[in-house]
Amino acid sequence: MDLKSKPLTKTRINLSAKTKGGKRELKKGGFLKVWGPGLIVMLADTDAGCLITAAQSGAQWGYTMVLPQLLLIPILYMAQEMTVRLGIVTGKGHGELIRENFGFGWACLSAGTLALSVVGALLTEFVGVAGVGELFGISKWITIPIATIILVGIAFSGSYRRVEKVGIIVGLAELAFVVAMVMVHPQMNELLSGLTSIPLGEPSYIYLVAANVGAVIMPWMIFYQQGAVVDKGLSKETIKKERHDTAVGTLITQGIMIVVVVTFAATIGRLGKHPSLNTVGEIVHALVPFIGSWQAKTLIGASMLGGSLVAALVVALAGTWGITEVLGWKHSLNEHLNKKNFGFYAIYALAHIIGAVLVLANVGLVSLAITVEVMNALLLPIVLGFLLALEAKALPDKYRMHGFYKWLVTILCLLVMIFGLYMIGPATNLW
């Protein structure tokens, strides 16, 4: 009996030690050892393009655009929460799981479209950086090369945690928009009235809602957060805390979007004017009469710069992880540059360099932006479809969705896919 019981006892002791070790790790390191992927990916979500979309929404449709932002909170959280479970439980990135479960061809399709989307998104971020510099009389030939060097240098530091901390600190500059909102004194009664007045019969309103869906739920977010929880080495015991990280990040990013909508609803929206709000300069100029020139430049500039830099970092990493996972290359930020991971760092650097060069050269940016918009609309259904399929196929039953929650998430994801496809028609009409 003793001989038979010893292996069992040893196993129990090891399992117990492993469980206690996981709990001890959480207590010792605090929330900073677990939190981060959800915060940084959500801060990146509120990039220059998203802020411009929110500003346009508030200026054109006032407070009626607040409700769609509130409704997007659970949808955004549900989509990203699936990536948390997939990454932590399987220990594999999104591209790698697609390759293993659906084949190399589908994985290449997903990674290829993601790569094009990433370059397009980086254009938006670099345009945002250039726009902020021009507010203060600094040429894009200075700001963009500096931003490129900083972004590439951060990733080459050989530590995912360091990259994450820097990204979060930079991204928090977006909160400067809160000060701008307070300065314009929005009326609470008008805000409450806007929540109950939804012009669903207006095609332009529906299109802007669809644009906000596309601006809030982006395909590269799924690749990034799944890759991040893997690179951070999170264990199954941390899933609950990582869900909290994702939930807080969701509230912050949507809170910023709502702040921008309210700011422009309380200013341009109340006047009934619809000025062009497609650049950082135009957004600043629109707020100058309400909060002053210096204040508008400083607050909007800080928000746009923070959002653009953290998004450029996250977007490039998402694309690099996705491509290298599909190709089966080494793809960790926790190793300094060497022969084995040269491809990973080369793709990351090349993505930034291509985006920077295209912005500096002004190579058909308007038509290219439209192409990216259409491509993202097509990519969103593909990525969400794979996400739902992987959740059902790659996870053990214990970690899958069940019952009402499963159907709710599936239906909401299908609605997002429909909105994504809806954007294709209006966007192609702009050519």
Describe the fold and architecture.
There is one protein chain. The protein is mainly alpha-helical and 431 residues long. It is 79% helix and 0% strand. Helix 5 packs antiparallel against helix 6. The longest helix is centred in the C-terminal third of the chain and has 35 residues, at 293-327. The termini are far apart. 48% of the residues are buried.
Main pleated sheet = none
Shape by Cα distribution: globular
Beta-strand segment tally = 0
What gyration radius follows from the Cα positions, in whole Å?
Answer: 22 Å
Strand content: under 5%
Mean pLDDT: 83
Structural class: mainly alpha
- State the end-to-end CA separation: 80 Å
- Low-confidence segments, given as residue ranges, are 1-26
What is the overall number of helices?
20
Instruction: Report the helical percentage.
Output: over 70%
